[in-house]
Amino acid sequence: MRLETALTIVQEEIAQALNGVDEGEVEALVHALLRARRVFVAGTGRVGLGAQAFAMRLMHLGVAAYWIGDAITPAVGPGDLWLACSGSGETAVIRALTQLAAQRGAEVATITRQPQATIGRLASTVVRLMPEEDARHRLPMSVQPMTTQFEQSLALLLDAVVLLIMERLGQTDAMIRQRHFNLER
Questions:
Q1: How many C-beta neighbours within 10 Å does residue 119 have?
Q2: For 69-109, what is each residue's pLDDT tens digit?
Q3: Cystine design at 148: which of 116, 144, 167, 182 (Cβ 3.0–4.6 Å)?
Q4: Which range marks the domain in which residue 128 is found?
Q5: Contact assessment for residue 62 and residue 131, using Cβ atoms and an 8 Å cutoff
């Protein structure tokens, strides 16, 4: 396979996954993110990498955001939003932590393929990304390994959410740069 062919496959798979996202669900997520006192973002593995980048972008936007697993993450509670990213909606660690966050009064949101799974049932805001029941009927099987298509699509979806929040908050790139880690320059 040539590089051009591989890139076309990846781009087409991501486009198929993102074209099925419901704008109303994303709008509900944006509202939940903006009304939250603080945002706690959780995910594991490669899904977690995209979710962690989103938490950092929220911080750059001036949102009080925390990545689950950092030693300085405060206690979660009422008024907070817990965003659980899990394709299956049953990732053991994320499921257990989401249950605890809900018990402690946090509002739960999720981005998942499986809204009927445990995490989806705990969430008041659900964004369906590549739901498996839709994938069987509309989307071809991914030729990429394991859950790569979901991970890539999640990262791009979250970047689009950043643009929506950026616009709603009236943030510019110059404003965001002021919150960027400045010891790199």
A1: 29
A2: 889 999 999 999 999 999 999 999 999 999 999 999 999 99
A3: 144
A4: 21-132+140-174
A5: no
